[in-house]
Automatic annotation (TrEMBL):
Pfam families given in the database record: CBS
Superkingdom classification of source: Bacteria
Coiled-coil regions listed: none
InterPro entries: CBS_CbpB, CBS_dom, CBS_dom_sf
Gene3D superfamilies hit by this protein: CBS-domain
Name by which UniProt lists this protein: CBS domain-containing protein
Start and end residues of each CBS domain: 24-63, 86-139
Amino acid sequence: MISKAINAMLKEQEQHFLIPGEMVASVNEDNALAHAFLVLTKVRYSKIPVLDKDSKFKGLLSMPMITDTMLGLEQLSLAPLDELCVKDVMETDVQTIENPYDAELVMHLLVDLPFIPVVASTGEFTGIVTRREFMKALNHISHNLDNEYDIQPKA
Ligand code: 2BA
C-alpha cells in the first residue's frame, strides 16, 4: 500500500499525467509499413500506439518490428514495406490501464515501461501515461507534501 497522503496527492495530479490521445503520435493498423516507417522516423519516439479506424487501441509499433521484416541473408529488402501492414508486425500483448487509474499499479508498471496506454472499457484509446509526466507529478508532490500534510517521524 502506498501512503494515503501520496495517493491523495497523486489523485489530484491525475489529469496532468495523461497525454490525451489527440496529442499522441499513432499509426493505423491498416497502414502500410512504408507509411509507419516514415511516421516513426519523423516523430522520433521509439514506440507508438496502433489504432483501428474507430480509434480503438490495437497494439504498439516500434522501428525494430518494421526493420526485422527487411532483413535478408545478405542484404536488406525494401519490398516488405509495401507488402506488409502494421497489424502484421505490431505487438498485441500490451499492458493497458483504464481511467481512473490505480496509482500504485501505474507506479509499478512505469518501473519497466516508458509509457502505458490508457484504454476505455469500450476499447477506445484515451491517451498515454508516460514516465516523464508521472515523474513530474511525483516531483510536485515531493515539493508540496509538507505544505498539505503534517507527517511526523514515528517515535
Ligand atoms: P521514447 O521515445 O523512448 O522516449 C524516451 C524519452 O525521451 C521520453 O520520455 C521523452 O522524455 C524523450 N523524448 C523522446 N522523443 C521525444 C520527442 N519527439 N519529443 C520530446 N521528448 C522526447 P517520456 O516523455 O516519458 O515518454 C516515454 C515514451 O512514451 C516514449 O519513449 C514514447 O515511446 C512514448 N511517447 C511519449 N510521448 C508520446 C507522444 N506524444 N506520441 C507517441 N508516443 C509518445
